[in-house]
Amino acid sequence: MAFTASLPQDSAPGSAGAVRVCRLPGVYAPQADTRLLLAQLRREELWPGMRSLDLCTGTGVLAVIAALRGARATAVDISRAAIAASRLNALLHGCRIRALRGDLDAPVARERFDLVTVNPPYVPSDDTEAPARGARRSWDAGPDGRLLLDRVCARAPGLLTPSGVLLLVQSSLSGVTHTLDALAGGGLRARVVRRRTEPFGPVMSARADWFATHGLIPRGVRTEELVVIRACRP
Predict the structure, then answer these.
(1) Cα torsion at 182, 161, 99, 77 (round to 10°)?
(2) Is the pLDDT of residue 29 over 90?
(3) 26 neighbors 58 (Cβ within 8 angstroms)
(4) What's the rounded Cα separation, in Å, for the pair 94 and 88?
(5) pLDDT digits (tens, 9 = 90+) for 158-197
(6) Is the pLDDT of residue 9 over 50?
(7) Separation of alpha carbons 47 and 130, rounded Å
(8) Domain covering 32-232, topology
(9) What is the mean pLDDT of residues 12-39?
(10) Percent of all residues in the chain with a pLDDT value above 90, rounded to a whole number
(11) Structural domain boundaries in the chain
(12) Cα distance between residue 49 and residue 79, in whole Å
């Protein structure tokens, strides 16, 4: 069974327009973080034949948008259902993407890309290791929310072409300054290009007391700031 959702329409010339997304059970549904990253993607310069990579792709919507704008798009996810959803959404929109199953960048470790987009799991949890299966694998990321973020920061410089761009979305609860410093340590110039304050959804609300106990939010707060970080070589 597939669930569908609409992402906002883009009115820019040559844009992909409204995007109807199919989501298979167990695949992360496009939410506020997806929309924020998508808004920045639509501001980036894409050209026919450029190579794009979307890690932790979920439904594949970012790869689909890149493909519709002429990129040779690759989507990677560890979830079989996500890879199936990515291929389904590419078919739905009449474009071609290369969808590969694997752990983060493992399937493309020897390749370089002009654009890399990432919406990784970043929600802090009391588990020290990432879930091996189930829906929580899409958001749980260890006590500081950085199990995937730190790996992305370490690998990003090696994935980019000399003029390549990384777009990464995360929560303020998972260390924005840490991400900026880690990317800078890898030789990239990184800055926050988008911010949006969002109310907690069900997962975050259920953990609010735990977040407060561990000093991630003041007690009583029920919002987070989502940010998009853009990184490139100086």
Answers:
(1) -10
(2) no
(3) no
(4) 10
(5) 999 999 999 999 999 999 999 999 999 999 999 999 999 9
(6) no
(7) 36
(8) Rossmann fold (3.40.50)
(9) 78
(10) 80
(11) 32-232
(12) 27
**Both structure tokens of 172:** 């303020």
Strand bridging mode 3-7 / 19-23:
antiparallel
pLDDT at 7: 52
The terminus-to-terminus CA distance of the chain in angstroms comes to 46
Q: Residue 60 contacts by C-beta under 8 Å, 6 or more apart in sequence?
A: 54, 75, 82, 85, 86, 87, 89, 90, 97, 99
Tokens of 173: 């609860």
Residue pair 117/36 in contact by the 8 Å Cβ criterion: no
Whole-number average pLDDT of the chain: 90
Q: What's the CA gap between 137 and 26, in Å, rounded?
A: 9
Contact 162, 112 (CB under 8 A): no
Total number of residues shown for the chain: 234
Model-wide pTM > 0.85: yes
Beta bridge partners of 117: 54, 167
Instruction: From residue 123, give the alpha-carbon distance in Å to each of 136, 218, 220.
Output: 10, 16, 18
Identify whether the C-beta of residue 16 lies closer than 8 Å to the C-beta of residue 68: yes
β partners of residue 190: 231
Nearest to 231 by CA among 149, 109, 172: 149
Given pLDDT bands bounded at 50, 70 and 90, which one contains residue 135? Answer: confident
